[in-house]
Specification:
The chain has one domain: 5 Propeller (Tachylectin-2, Chain A), CATH 2.115.10.20. 35% of the residues are buried. It is mainly beta. The strands form four sheets. Strands 1, 15, 16, 17, 18, 19, 20 and 21 form an eight-stranded antiparallel sheet that branches. Strands 2, 3, 4, 5 and 6 form a five-stranded antiparallel sheet that branches. It contains six helices and 21 strands. The structure holds 3,6-anhydro-alpha-L-galactopyranose. 3,6-anhydro-alpha-L-galactopyranose binds next to strand 7 and strand 11. 3,6-anhydro-alpha-L-galactopyranose (AAL) binds next to strand 7 and strand 11.
Amino acid sequence: MKRRWTIPRVATFTALLGLSLVAAAAELKEEPFPAVMPEEKPAGRPLSASWSRMWDRWNPHEDRGNELYSNFKYTPLAGFSRETNVSRRDPSKVLKIDGTYYVWYTCRRSEFPPAGLDRATDVVPGTDWDLADVWYATSRDGFTWEEQGPAVRRPLRPTRGFRSICTPDVLVWKGKYYLYFQAYSPMVGGQQYCPVMAAAADSPAGPWTLVEKPVIEPGPPESWDNIKINDPYLLVYRGRIVMYYKGAPIERGQEYVLRMQGLATAGDPLGPFVKSPLNPVVNSGHETCMWPWKSGIAALVALDGPEKNTIQYAADGENFQIMSILQVPPIAPGPFIPDAFADSGDGRGFTWGLCHINPDGGGPASDSILARFDCDLSLDVDRPLFKRNNLRFEASTYFQSRLRLPENLRRQIEHQREQTDRETMMGGPSREGLQR
Ligand code: AAL
């Protein structure tokens, strides 16, 4: 016989359902979330979306248990003198060869300070990285450096790069050394054609032979990287030379892509480099910084874009996911990654590197200095200091020129106060609502 839902039956069912809900609520009330963080995601109890993420997205030990989380401590470097109109920036990865550390970087030694792109001349630089060459320095301990002089000088007109060569990175492949750098001519700047050129040497101390043909060029018109290949960054991964880079189109405006990163791979250091069909593979970040991590590639993404100040991981080197959120990451980091070219399938990470700082707070016309950062992004060390949260800063940090509220904005805010700062609204239902 077919069971029919008569009114008394429905009433009994509803009553039972009600009772079981009350019982469940009572049970829940008796078992609040435990103080000891469960190792496994608790099953069979309600979890807020945020708590679910602790197991789905993060891990129950928070940043302490996240090998791809670190904070950063900075040290001024000894050995680089500060001179007028001398700027050093955008360090390469650091190598350690026969006990000596090597780093390459953009070095500008100009007669005049940068004056902006509109006022640049043959001798007046437009930006901090204009009229620059690639220099190098060595160190025995990573803190005190000895500047060695130019590794590669910008070529003579009309060879590409005659205006400025900058933002170098280094590759070691089959016992030879390769430097890659941005090659600007006839001028520097965001809307200038900027391919990447290379130089090769048998030793990290050179001499370097410039390869006059660019190793990778910007993409076709209307593509995301149609004018610039910036920040070349070299690794060896899955048998290929991989170049990560920041690309940009000539077109500017809010509707255009700016500061995205892509990759291109090659079987030979001088190319051809084949761009990934998935480019751009990183949607944020001002400079490139990648390293072999376990069997994939990790990236430090800083300063620009919706995913700024994160570390990301791609199990295949191309499909990156956010792994941690950072405070005050290094600018233009050049880490010391012993296994950058080992292609071991078991990347171990790094604990320090060099970066740059603008002593006056920054901008394209400010001088830069190199600095050291230390961190714990390594599977081989455990330094709890770097896994801490809750970094706090001195009052001078908040009130420095780049963070304090500018005077003109303060005046505007005061002027608009009557419109913006409405009276505090009373909580709860209004008198009208109560009467209804
Ligand atoms: C850097 C890099 C590239 C840009 C400029 C010099 O930090 O992103 O190199 O072109 O700024």
